[in-house]
Amino acid sequence: MRKFYFTPGPSQLYYTVEEHMKNALKENVLSISHRSKDYEKIHQQTIEAIRSLLVLPNDYHIFFTSSATEIWERIIQNTVEAESFHLINGAFSRRFLEIAENYQINAMSQVAEEGKVVEAEELLIPETAELIAVTQNETSTGASQPIDDIKKIRKAFPDQLIALDVVSSAPYANVDYSMVDTAYFSVQKCFGLPAGLGVWIVNNRCFQKAQSLMNKNRTIGSYHSLPSLLEKGIKNQTPETPNVLGVYLLGKVATDMANKGIDQIRRETEYKAAVLYQAFEQSEILQPFVTSEVHRSKTTLVANTAIPSKEIISKLSEKSFVIGNGYGKFKDKHIRIANFPTHSKEHIEILADELLKIKN
């Protein structure tokens, strides 16, 4: 029996991926050299597709890494000498802070209660902080930082570098990327692709900071330092042998999404989220974990459960729906449901109906 995956990453493959994988095999994409003209063409097409879909400024660069987790470390290596500041609203934003602490810098933070976000108006960030790290959509709790907060932070701190985590919200999140200096995501969530590829968006201010650190004889990494990534990137290559299939599929899916229309994807995402949140509120055993509607994620929905989450997961699995359990200490107390572009309105509606059938 075919399963439908609503797990928050990896998740259900985007519906065009199967055909693209067949074409990749026909075109021998899995065998080509990463230094060949064939790969350079794939690389360039994927970069252009991402740039178009996300409406990135022309002077922003796009690089490929192994994961978004790697990008946390690369950001600290390349852009921070002494101090960073992190908005913490869940486990993944906290993990970025912990990586910064590993580098023995002064990694500061402002922490929101789980299920909430740090209020932009209440931020107390010292001018000495070189980097401000914001998680736009916290996958562990389903708490979403409003896009307008990014603009407020930029206006208040024009000189600091801003790093934006859009791992579980791009391309849905309607971000003005000119407001941030670096952003990043991985492909196994909203893009509906196999795991194993991170995408790092970087502007020239980050390169200037990396160069400044190099001039001070600071180590900024080796093969994935910003200078090494740029050296190969301008040739539509990567420093190492990349995930060629992942890059190929990302370019195809980003093109498919652009052809469908990002506005339509956003409208569908918001409709599907409304259906699921309504089910949470009407259910005998569920309630939205994020109490503030304005802070509820549209792409990773989290609910408190009145019965152990594994019982809900088991009942839905019998109906071919696979959802996620809670993260960390909430494993048995939450369910998490992905609402990504690949998830159809029809399947979301059926899933919502099945949720309402589960009783205490």
Write the layout of secondary structure elements.
Layout: E1 4-5, H1 17-26, H2 37-54, E2 61-65, H3 68-79, E3 83-88, H4 91-102, E4 106-111, E5 131-135, E6 137-138, E7 143-144, H5 147-156, E8 161-165, E9 182-186, E10 198-202, H6 204-215, H7 226-233, H8 244-260, H9 262-282, E11 286-288, E12 300-305, H10 309-318, E13 321-322, E14 324-325, E15 334-338, H11 345-357
Parallel strand pairs: 1-13, 3-4, 3-5, 5-8, 8-9
Antiparallel strand pairs: 2-10, 6-7, 9-10, 11-12, 12-15, 14-15
Helix pairs in contact: 1-8, 2-8, 9-11
Features:
Aspartate Aminotransferase, domain 1, globular, 11 helices, four-stranded antiparallel β-sheet, alpha/beta, Aspartate Aminotransferase, domain 2
Give the oligomeric state of the chains in this entry, treating copies of one chain as homo and distinct chains as hetero: single chain
Number of helical elements = 11
List how many beta strands DSSP finds. 15
Strand order of the largest sheet: 2-10-9-8-5-3-4
Dominant shape: globular
CATH superfamily of the largest domain: Type I PLP-dependent aspartate aminotransferase-like (Major domain)
In the CATH hierarchy, the architecture of the largest domain is 3-Layer(aba) Sandwich
Distance between the termini: 27 Å
Give me the strand/helix succession: EHHEHEHEEEEHEEEHHHHEEHEEEH
The main β sheet shows up as: 7 strands, mixed
User: What class do helices, strands and sheet pairing give?
Assistant: alpha/beta
Q: Indicate how many domains the architecture comprises.
A: 2
Low-confidence spans: pLDDT under 50, at least 5 residues? none
